[in-house]
Structure formats: structure tokens, C-alpha cells
Amino acid sequence: MNKILFIRRDNIGDLICTTPAIHAVRNKFPEATIGILVNTYNADIILNNPDIDEVYKYQKAKHAVEKNKFSVWWSNYKILRKIRKKRYDVAIGCGSYSPMLERYTFFSGAKVRIGYIKKGARNFFYNIPMVQPDEKKHEVVNTFNLTRPLGINAEPGCLHVVPDERELELFSGYKRASANNGSKPLIALAISARILKNKWPVERFIQLAERILLKKKFNVLFLWAPGSKNNPTFPGDDDEAEKIIIKFGTRVLAYLTPGLNALTAALTDSDMVVSLDTGNLHIAAALGKPTVALMTKSKSLCWYPWKTEHILITAEEEVKAISVDKVFEAVITLGKKLQVGGKI
């Protein structure tokens, strides 16, 4: 097996949940060329991954509202041509069944094409189709199972994310300049989420921060995605961040994360993370951070923080139903295990 291609068209968390499978393939085939097709929105999260040799980036039309759709499609066609010229032996369509995913896998030109199909469905594009399981399993497990036809019989390991050194230096400089720089463990509150039902009101984040600060044992860091709520790629929270800064001033750290590298650096230099059901959650898990996760019950079954210490707090339909009391209790429970220096 000389050339293996992973295809992951979804969002940040989906791509991070693919990294255990990529790592297992690298261990099984250490000399192989491993490529991955991702989108421009999530690509930065794997650019430093040592298991990957080639990264192909295409753009979703909905993420390029300023561009002509035909020009976007033409650019993506050229990416597929580049992949076909590489002559991959295997292409793995990662994720649950999708007609678009199976077409991308087919058009890769790989000799062996692996992916999920629905039970009883007719298959035209995969020559090693796998029936999508009915049982609710973590996305890491579902994706890892697609590597079984390659003779991989191990269990999935940890998530893999490598922070960017320059962004780490930038965040460290910000921390040093902050009035709250010190020996207290740093708790990151990541307030942004792409899906409305996964969001928690900023007023509750403010209440949570107030209660954490009253304990006088922790510093608090607010993280948010910049820009407008109408951003088609990721709704921004500049308005909410302004409320936080007005409320707390220099009593908290407030760090704008314009990209995935900045976000990853800030989470790397934090000791605990409170996150909604979004990419932050999986970045924190990949970095081994103790995490308080706020999720809906249905999503928590397949998307909880993988292989990191965590407390899961769920709501039936919308995360906004979760109380400040429950989140604060979880923070204190994990916080008791934090020693000076932020180690558990």
C-alpha cells in the first residue's frame, strides 16, 4: 500500500475525530504517502500533523459568497484532477453516508474506495462499501472502523492536533502582558458555537465567570470567534465579547481567535476548558485538557470529548436550558484536581 487518501468534507470537529484513523494508518504503513482532502474552513487544524504528507484544500460554495460559484467549482475540479494524477491506491470517504462524499471518493480515481452506505442501498461508487451502523457510537469509532479493510485491528487512540509555534508565542506574550498573569490555573470559556441550539447565552457565561473569580483560585480566559452573527462560515461573537470586556475589564483575559491556529494556541496554554458543542471541544480533547462540555443529549452520544478527562452536561433540545449552577459545580469539581502549574 503506497498511497492512501482520506476525504473529510465536514467541519472542524469531524476532521479532528479522523486523526486517530490517520495515525493508525501511518503506523501500519510507515512508508506510505498519506494525503487528505479537506475544505478551506477546517484545513488549518491538520497542517502541522506529522502523519499527513499531502493536504488538498477545496472550497465550499457557501463559504465563498464573494466569489462566482462557477469559479469555485472550477477550482475544486482542478483539485480533483491533481488528486487523480497522484494515482492513490486507496481513498477513504470519512463520515456518515453522503451522496456527495461517495462521488468525491469515486472521482479521486483511487483503485480501492472505502466508505459507508445505508443498509439495503444500492452502491455505485465504493468498491469496498461498509454498511453504516445503526448503533450510536462516537464519531472517532465510526471513522476508525473504515480502516478495518486495510488490516488495522487496533482500537482508536487519542485525537491529534499540533499547535502552531508562532501562535503559541503570540498568546504567551498576551498572557505575560495581562494583569492576570500568575500562577493560578487558567480556565478558558469558549463562548462561540456555529449552531444556534448549541449556544449558551453570554449572560450565563458572565455569571459563571463572576462565580469562578469569587473563588480567587483561578484566572478566566474568554475566547470567541470574531465577526458578525451572519458570517456564512462561522457566526461571530464580537457583540457578546464587547459585553464581557465592558463587564470585567482587566479582571479577565479576553482573546480574539480569528483563526484555528490562534484558538489552538490559546487552548494549549489553558489548564481547563468550558466549551459548547463545536470545534473548540475537540481541539481541547486533542490537547488533553480537562473539559466541561455543554451539549444536547442526542449529540453527546457521538461527540463527547474523546479520551480526555471531562464532565458532560446535557440538555434535551437546546443548550440554553443548562443552568449556571450545574456548569459551576462541574468547573469546581475539575478545578479541585488542578495543581499549581495546571497539571491534573
Bin the strand percentage: 15-25%
- By DSSP (H or I, 4+ residues per run), the number of helices equals 12
Derived structural class: alpha/beta
**CATH architecture type of the largest domain:** 3-Layer(aba) Sandwich
Average pLDDT, to the nearest integer? 91
Protein architecture, described:
The chain is an alpha/beta fold and 344 residues long. The chain folds into two domains: 3-150, Rossmann fold (3-Layer(aba) Sandwich); 165-335, 3-Layer(aba) Sandwich (Rossmann fold), CATH 3.40.50.2000. The chain is 35% helix and 18% strand. It has helices spanning 12-16, 19-28, 69-86, 99-107, 139-144, 165-177, 202-214, 238-248, 260-268, 279-286, 297-303, 324-335; strands at residues 3-7, 33-39, 54-58, 90-93, 112-117, 128-131, 186-190, 219-224, 253-256, 272-276, 291-296, 310-315. A six-stranded parallel sheet has the order 3-2-1-4-5-6, sandwiched between helices. The protein has a six-stranded parallel sheet with strand order 9-8-7-10-11-12, sandwiched between helices.
